[in-house]
Amino acid sequence: MKVHERIDGRLRAFIEAQPMFFVATAPTGPDGHVNVSPKGMGGTFAVLGEHRVAYLDYHGSGAETTAHLSENGRITLMFCAFQGPPNIVRLHGRGRAVPVTDPEFPELLSLFGAAPDTHGVRSVIDVAVERVSDSCGYAVPLMSYEGDRDLLLRSHGRRTEADLAEYRRVKNGHSIDGRPIFA
User: How far apart are CA 106 and CA 111, in angstroms?
Assistant: First the structure.
């Protein structure tokens, strides 16, 4: 394992080339569930600087990341090479969720010009990266990338802004541990 001072050069190119990544967060203290979520879809992740990244958070079945970030801000993003030379990059940092209702949301959303669709985005997850490390990834399997799924976009495309607000209120109102989110 090697710790890097910043996201630049080959690290940045590697991160930006990955079609998926994983996000890990946890509540404060010994209670509650640790959460790991897969993320993907081209154009929905951005390196905003040597110590800052962000991704689009679409409406989904849960919002544990948002709940945990509002409680303690701790977040780790992990990128794995499923093709080419083995590599794993982890970005440890402090994150915040900027929901669609926040005045700052439109400005952050504008940083994702290559996003396939932004209608179903419920927040932008903005991460101040404190630690950048890589490791070998020798045990990560080789897998082929066939393309992005369009199910999420098609599902959200059928919903109005009012429908999405209701979805946040009802289905994303609380985390699995009962923490308030978009209630």
Answer: 9
Residue 38's beta-bridge partner residues?
22
Question: Can you list the pairs that 26-34 forms with residues at least 24 positions away whose Cβ atoms lie under 8 Å?
Answer: 26/68, 26/72, 26/74, 27/67, 27/68, 27/71, 27/72, 27/177, 27/179, 28/71, 28/72, 31/177, 32/177, 32/179, 33/64, 33/176, 33/177
How many whole angstroms separate alpha carbon 14 and alpha carbon 80?
9
CB neighbours of residue 182 within 10 Å: 22
Q: How far apart are CA 96 and CA 57, in angstroms?
A: 11
Cα distance between residue 153 and residue 115, in whole Å: 11
pLDDT tens string 19-62: 999 999 999 999 999 999 999 999 999 999 999 999 999 998 89
**pTM for the complete prediction?**
0.96
CB of 58 within 8 A of CB of 120?
A: yes
| pLDDT beyond 90 at 182 | no
Note whether 3 and 131 are within 8 A (CB). Answer: yes
